[in-house]
UniProtKB/TrEMBL annotation:
The lineage of its organism: Bacteria, Pseudomonadati, Pseudomonadota, Alphaproteobacteria, Rickettsiales. The gene is tatC. It comes from Neorickettsia helminthoeca str. Oregon. This is Sec-independent protein translocase protein TatC. Part of the twin-arginine translocation (Tat) system that transports large folded proteins containing a characteristic twin-arginine motif in their signal peptide across membranes. Together with TatB, TatC is part of a receptor directly interacting with Tat signal peptides. It is a multi-pass membrane protein. It comes from the Bacteria. NCBIfam families: tatC.
Length: 259
């Protein structure tokens, strides 16, 4: 394939990727209000639990301080949703563009990662939505104070719609990226840049690095950092097992090839 053919192929991949993204954006914007309400559900459930315990109306109120704030939030929801839906398609288009120049062994290494990367990202988002959000939100709203003591003022939780979305996205992005760890390390082992023995030797250093990464990716509170670091430690141990399996298969294949 000559240079002109490569450019034509690249243009074709870019055009269909952009069209796919625009279609996903329109779809997500149509359902943007429902998507935002879905993201609000963990916070709403905490309010309902407090209603049952106190017998009072403890529902939280979200506010918007700018005239266009809610509209911009729905645009953000649509944009981020479109990226999430389009990412597997984008990755596949990139692979289809570079695949003709790859060796068969390289293709076999990349295809499992291409398939697993979106699954691992969604899995990370699911963990933070169903397990981390209820604990984290319960902790954060516990700082409310009714001002019952003399000489004090009440502290009331009234987040803005944009601040809540930004916090949710930060958590989901952090966990989605963290859950890529097994796939990335296994891929590096598959192409021969890493082996499971190196992961075992560097375990102590990796633990420190994991907590540093968790501190960077999450909001500046200890609960969020530990909430991300613990799953990453588990994923690191899972990566060691996966890399050990890949290395054994590669060694067996090399022995068979040598004979």
């Amino acid at each position: 394939m000559d240079f002109g053919s490569h450019l034509s192929e690249l243009r074709y991949r870019l055009v269909i990727s952009v069209l796919f993204f625009l279609g996903a954006f329109c779809l997500c914007y149509y359902f943007s209000e429902e998507i935002y309400k879905f993201l609000l559900r963990p916070l709403a459930e905490i309010a309902n639990q407090r209603d049952g315990v106190t017998g009072k109306n403890c529902s939280f109120t979200l506010i918007y301080t700018g005239l266009t704030e809610t509209f911009v939030v729905y645009l953000k929801v649509a944009f981020l949703g479109a990226i999430l839906l389009s990412a597997p398609f984008f990755i596949w288009q990139i692979y289809m563009f570079v695949a003709p120049g790859l060796y068969p062994t390289e293709k076999r290494a990349f295809i499992p990662y291409i398939v697993s990367a979106p699954i691992l990202f969604v899995l990370g988002c699911s963990v933070v939505y169903y397990y981390v959000f209820p604990l984290a939100w319960q902790f954060f709203v516990s700082f409310e104070y009714d001002g019952s003591k003399p000489g004090t003022l009440p502290i009331e939780f009234m987040p803005s719609v944009s601040e809540y979305l930004d916090l949710v996205v930060q958590f989901m992005f952090a966990f989605g990226i963290a859950f890529q760890l097994p796939g990335i390390l296994t891929l590096l082992c598959h192409i021969g840049l890493l082996d499971h023995n190196a992961l075992v030797r560097k375990r102590k250093f990796s633990i420190v690095l994991i907590f540093i990464v968790a501190a960077i990716l999450t909001p500046p509170d200890v609960l969020s950092q530990i909430g991300l670091a613990i799953p990453m430690l588990f994923l690191y141990e899972l990566s060691i097992l996966s890399c050990r399996y890949v290395c054994k298969r590669r060694s067996s294949a090399e022995k068979k090839g040598g004979t």
